[in-house]
Write a structure and sequence with these properties.
Blueprint: E1 2-6, H1 10-22, E2 26-30, H2 41-46, E3 54-57, E4 67-70, H3 72-83, H4 91-120, H5 129-149, H6 163-168, H7 186-197, H8 199-206, H9 220-230
Parallel strand pairs: 1-2
Antiparallel strand pairs: 1-3, 3-4
Helix pairs in contact: 1-3, 1-8, 4-5, 5-7
The structure holds glutathione.
Glutathione binds near residues 33, 50, 51 and 230.
Length: about 250
Amino acid sequence: MLDLHYWPTPNGKKVTIQLEECGLEYNVVECNIGKGDQFTDEFLKINPNNRMPALVDHDPDDSGEPISIFESGAIMLYVAEKTGQFMPSDMRGKYEVIQWVMWQMANQGPKTGECGHFRRAGEEAGDQTYAITRFTDEVNRFYGVLNNQLYNQRYLCGDEYTIADMICYPWTVNWEGQGQDINEFKYFKRWFEELSERPAVQRGMAVGADMQNDYSKLSEEEIAQLRALLYNQRARPAPETGGLEA
Ligand SMILES: N[C@@H](CCC(=O)N[C@@H](CS)C(=O)NCC(=O)O)C(=O)O
């Protein structure tokens, strides 16, 4: 069985889309990042970066101990290898897909995340004009990259639907909130509409629709505690004893 530690954000939904496309059985373990589940000792053992998603495979192919994987791109490569699905087996095709997975993880994901962060920052955060322009332009550039890639082929890596498509899709669903207009990117739009119609994509996107936080029920003190935990995160101290000599 696969345990997916999950909260319904684009990074989580990439993985649920893949699991749904592969027809795998999986167990969703709620990792409520609005309440701080990502900081528990138990979770940090499977993801020292205190971020979801993370996957635990209790039935790995080597028949060994359960294996845990963090970083959504690594999870998707693992599932692709485990199932042999949505990833070409030939060397050139495989690296075509891997480079788009890396592109998404290093470019589209983090910078689109920052775009949303600065666009949502309230007035109390001060003037965000420079950051908003910087990241909105970058995101615009990404839509151009995808549009150019899709102008003469159906999917990002050719005729075949792969994890490259699945990993990029969820970050484009909120294009309006990113200050973009997909009508400017007609090849991208064709791909986006096709993927949006896929039943497995719809099922993957819907996972965790009921997972929400209602902060209105919390006291001011509880809210202050959460803010201290979740905002302005800095380095966690390493243990003082029991490790290698520093
Ligand atoms: N590169 C990581 C990014 C994961 C990530 O940023 N997850 C966010 C939600 S989308 C999270 O867990 N945030 C918790 C926090 O900010 O404390 C991946 O793709 O898995």
